[in-house]
Amino acid sequence: MAGRRRPRTIRPARPARIADSFVLPNNSGNHQAGRMLRMPENEYDLVNKKYVDEATTPIEYPADSIALITGTLDSGDVTDIQTKNDSNVYHVDEVTGTPGFSIEVTFTGVTHFNSVKTQQWYMGSATHVVNLQLWNYDTLDWDTIGVIQDESAQTPFEVGDIDHANYIQNEEAKVRYYHATSGNASHEILIDYCSLWNSFSTSTSTSTENWQFTIIDPNKIYNTDTQVFIGWAGYDLTIDRVQIQLDATTNQVAGDLKYADDFISLANPIVINDFDTTSGVRDDTSITSASVVRGKAIYLQFDSEPHEDIKQMHVRITFKK
Predict the structure, then answer these.
(1) 220 forms bridges with which residues in the sheet?
(2) Omega prior to 269 cis, within 30 of 0
């Protein structure tokens, strides 16, 4: 209607700024294709639910068969070692002579594994040991991965961080309980459980991985805290490359990549390698202290305040587990 004024529009207040610096996660690669409908294959592929579920759900391979090579079978078969704590056991008595017993467990359908889990009660003596072994298809021999000694009850035993590369052939793997010295007829072993496990089904236990992230405005990060926490070592690992790239060549950053017992106290810090840049870049494969024990906290520590003109600092730490 002529002469009628429109109602006044009230604009909402702008939200208050909650931060003026942050660490930006790496999102390199072409992500314009939309939803990922196939399994990720390349370094910069987006993950999907199927990938996450399969990559983080442990896979158990139960025993497929068991064979007594040497020893006296008291009772049991393969079904007795497939379930833990079910009161069913594979019971073998030692024999005189060497070996005291030899028990082979076979697994089929195995594609990856990185640990062996067993539970048994070995009733022997302090001077008798049982070698837990894996059959090596490359050397055609048994590799000892652990030692079981005299026990007073059913005892869980696990050997982890196994590189399965030489221990699988045609999706088959073998574990052996081997009493290497002369046996005693009064000694015995009761095996309750034996299985192979793969903690991450889509990777091997000796893969190369990396941490990548970008520090936005490292000068303000430094004035907040001189350390930047990267993450925990989830397993024993070896750092083999440290890379830093700034957004310009004029000003540099200096500091060290370190690990400590935890990030709160930074107790027992160890320098892994420096990350001092030249012309805006640091790329070093000659690492000072490459081995990091499982459970340590890994972090960056600046030696000095980065120049305020540096707006981005990209970090890439490559390691093998």
Answers:
(1) none
(2) no
Q: Residue 36: its pLDDT value, please?
A: 47
Integer Cα distance of 48 and 175 in angstroms = 35
C-alpha to C-alpha distances, 283 to 136, 210, 314, nearest whole angstrom: 38, 14, 12
The candidate with the shortest Cα–Cα distance to 73, out of 106, 102, 96, is 102
Q: How is residue 121 written in tokens? A: 């009660």
pLDDT tens digits, one per residue of 186-239: 999 999 999 999 975 444 445 678 888 999 999 999 999 999 999 888 778 889
Under 8 Å between Cβ of 161 and 295: no
Residue keyed to tokens 């001092």: 276
Q: How many CA atoms lie within 13 A of 297 on its CB side?
A: 16
pLDDT digits (tens, 9 = 90+) for 122-144: 999 878 889 999 999 999 999 99
Rounded to whole angstroms, how far apart are CA atoms 175 and 173? 7
CATH numbers and ranges of domains, the chain: 23-51+205-320 (no CATH), 59-198 (2.60.120.260)
Residues 132/175, Cβ–Cβ less than 8 Å: yes
